[in-house]
Structures are given as C-alpha cells and as structure tokens.
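Dock N-(iminomethyl)-L-glutamic acid; give full complex structure.
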Amino acid sequence: MTVLIKNIGQLATPLGSSAQRGKAQGEICLLKNAWLLMEDGVIRKIGEGEAPCIPDAKIIDGEGRLVTPGLVDAHTHLVFGGWRAHELMLKLQGVPYLEILAAGGGILSTVRATRGASQEELQDKAAAALREMLQYGTTTCECKSGYGLDLDTELKQLRAVKALNEAQPVELVSTFLGAHAVPSEFAGDRAGYIRLLTDRVIPEVAKEGLAEFCDVFCETGVFDAAEAEEILKAGLSHGLGAKIHADEINPISGSQLAGELRAVSAEHLIAAPDGGIEKMAEGGTVAVLLPATSFYLDKPFARARAMIDAGVPVAAATDFNPGSCPSLNMQMVMSLACYKYRMKPEEVLTAVTLNAAAAIGRAHRIGTLEAGKQADILIWDAPSLEHIFYRFGSDQVKTVIKKGIEVK
Ligand code: NIG
Ligand code: FE
C-alpha cells in the first residue's frame, strides 16, 4: 500500500543508522512544508514544497503539524504481576528503595506476584500497558524479564513478550534480566544463584531464542561488578548482547564495566563517575537515562550534559516497572529530559528515537525518517518540535503510524 503524508508543517528527525554522540546528537534534520511517501511499511521518499501526485496513494493531510519518527522506549520491565502502590507511602515516610528490597519487599514482592500469575494473566496485563504506550507514541519497546528469578518464571515472562510481539502493533525487543535480584531461596547462596543463571537459565533462554540481550542490576546489595561481569560474559558467550543497570544509586563500577565490555548500553547512571563516563565513551556504549525514575524516587538526575560533552551517545526511556517508575509515558520522559537534564529538544528527539534504537540494536531499521527505514511515524498536535516540550503534561500525539499503518 502507498501512503503519502502531505502538508507537514515541520518534519523533525535525526539522521543515520547508528547512535549520534556529542554535538551531532543535537544536529537533526528539520524540514518545513514537507511531505513523506511510504510504500508497504517502508519510507520511500521525503521532500519539501509541493507534494508529488501519486495516483492510488492513500493521502494523510498533515494539516501543518509536526511529524517525527515513532518513539522507542529502550528500557522497560513490561511484564509483571501486581502493583506496589503501598510502597509510595513507605517512600513518602523516607524509607530508602534498597531498604525495602533488603527487607524482602520491592522487586522480591513483584517476584512473588509474577510467579503466582499465569502467562495469560501476565500477557493481558502487559497488553493493556502496550495499548497505553502506543497512545503516547511508543512504537517499539524493550522488555526485560527479571521478576521470575527461577527458570520457569523467567521463561514465562519472556514467552509472554514473544506472544505479545505477534499480537499487537508495538514492536518488542526482549532482554533477559535474571540477575535482577537474588531470590529468597538463594539468600544464603549468591554463588549458587549465579551458577544457575550462567549454567542453566542463560543457555536455555538463548536456545529458545527468547532474548537478544542480557542485563544485570549492578548495585550495592544486589550484584557487584565482578558478579555482573561473570553473568554478562556468560550471556555474550551465548550470543546475548550486554546491557547493565549501572550506578543507579551507588557508583560501584558498573559504568566502567559497561565501557570495558563494550556493552550495547548502560542504564540509569545517576551516580556514574567521570571515569565511568570516559570508559563508556571509549567503548561506544549508549547511556540509557531514565529521568522519570529520578523524578519518582526523588533522586538526582543523571549527568546527561557531562555524558554528551564526553562523547557518550545518550538515550532516554521510561523504565516502566511497578517499583521505581510506574509511568509508561515517553512524552513525560521527553519533558523531564529537557527540563532536568538541560537537553535541547533536538538532543532529546535523538535520545528517544535513533539513540534509543541503537541501544536495542535496531538503528539500521528504525529511529529516523529516511528512505529505506521502516515507516514508524508520529503526527503531533503541535506545529513544531519546541512546542511539544513547551506544552508538557498533555498527550500531544495525534496520529501513530506503525509499519505504514495508522494505529492511532
Ligand atoms: O530499573 N533498578 C532495578 N530495577 C528496576 C526497578 C524494579 C522494581 O523496583 O521493581 C529499575 O528501576
Ligand atoms: Fe530498570
């Protein structure tokens, strides 16, 4: 099917098929009075001025609005049982996040709920979240496991993602996060749990083709950098790309490790030290920053400007999960990245499209509006890029096109 969007007020897109870093992160393409032609879900041509006349093409009138690539949410914990609204009250009383976890709550309480849910129940719940994400403009979403912490439940979560990927429009990319916490049955035997992951679960996940990446929560009281390295290397040896939850609360060398391993991404990074940022720049690791988590946990905001200055490609994502970020709204993430990281709208756009796509190994196919790329496109209820940052808080996505098909 051929579709032509004409009368686009402003078309804003980063360019290229790999992450943009440094100054280049803010150097996007801005066209005025533009048009975009797509065919069978692929972008064919983009131009400025008078739109071509294509007989039989379906016409979408852009009505002078802003058009951008679809948003890529490169860090979510999409599949989980239950919620944890009660933790909000603990948080307001000043109980730290890691203390709730150490007392058997937090991640471990979601593990209990996820173990107790059927695959179908998990799928239905995640499907509702995906419907909402799509409304806010997310067209591709990374999903981490990590609320099973045993072979069967980790596989159940990953199978739910696989089934959902086939059942609805948001494209899903799976990450194995068995190293999200040490489950209570291994409380006295950390080494035993790590052995279970490296010798049993990772090989099984890879054999079934259920994940593309392996991630570790490298944090005080969870997994240290040496343990994270062992787990990520096991993943790499089975073809799973390395990602790492690094320096979220305490700087314990996660960002250094990410750079040294040339990990695809390091995520959170609120407390990342200069040395870690340098290593990430050297290793070509994408920093996936999660400003809505800083906001919700009332933590500092990651040093995005220092990362951009050091030549680290920066992406931004929701971290959607029941504990540290119950929001799945990428527009909220974009606003926070602009106001709190002091990133320019152009830099944020790259962070939530091309660089986010690079963080999940998809920059060759999505993340920009260019001939040959997949037609994942948003039409905004705004005349320009700066307008969507200015009018925070409203849902400003008017139309969502996934693989050439209008889905909102
Ligand atoms: O990315 N930091 C570790 N994992 C999640 C939180 C998971 C939870 O609290 O359930 C995160 O913030
Ligand atoms: Fe996370």
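Observed: The chain has a mean pLDDT of 97.
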